[in-house]
Amino acid sequence: MTAITTLLLCVGALQFTVDWAGFRARGDSTRVEVFYAVPYEQLHYSKAPGSGVEARFAVSVTMTGTDGDFSQSGVIQKRARLQSFAAAQRAQTTFVDGFSIIAPPGRYALVVAVTESVPGGVNSGE
């Protein structure tokens, strides 16, 4: 039996949620699927080419073994597009996406941050 302990804490102006699942693979690796959800109203938008509006943001991730033997990090550039704010409000739109990391079995600290550049600064959460 494998025990899993999760502590989720979101800090910063941009509030979003994170969830994960681990899947054993053959041999000495595990696939960790990480999913995040950002409510549409947390992002800042500009006019999109064609029609609608879009928000551009970056998702950064760092996964580090508590024993220090494994570390992986990266940044993913994303776009969230809306046809209209009224439709997004009616549907309570949340942008959900995910990524996976292959890692050896072990205990890890996982940090996910969402950051966007906005006039006058940065909007971010971790």
Keywords summarizing the entry:
single chain, mainly beta, five-stranded antiparallel sheet, three-stranded antiparallel sheet, elongated
- Percent of residues in helices comes to under 10%
| Oligomeric state of this protein | single chain
Largest beta-sheet details: 5 strands, antiparallel
How big a fraction of the residues is strand? over 45%
Look at the structure and give the mean pLDDT: 86
Radius of gyration: 17 Å
Overall geometry comes to: elongated
Would you count the extended β strands for me?
8
Helices and strands: which structural class?
Answer: mainly beta
| Low-pLDDT residue intervals, each spanning 5 or more residues | 1-5
Instruction: List the total number of helices.
Output: 1
User: For the terminal residues, how far apart are their CA atoms?
Assistant: 31 Å
Q: Secondary-structure element sequence?
A: EEEEEHEEE
Descriptive notes:
With 126 residues, this protein is mainly beta. It has one helix and eight strands. The protein has one helix at 85-91; strands at 17-24, 30-39, 46-47, 53-65, 71-82, 94-103, 108-118, 121-125. The strands form two sheets. Strands 3, 4, 5, 7 and 8 form a five-stranded antiparallel sheet that branches. A three-stranded antiparallel sheet has the order 1-2-6, with no helix packed on it. The radius of gyration is 17 Å and the shape is elongated.
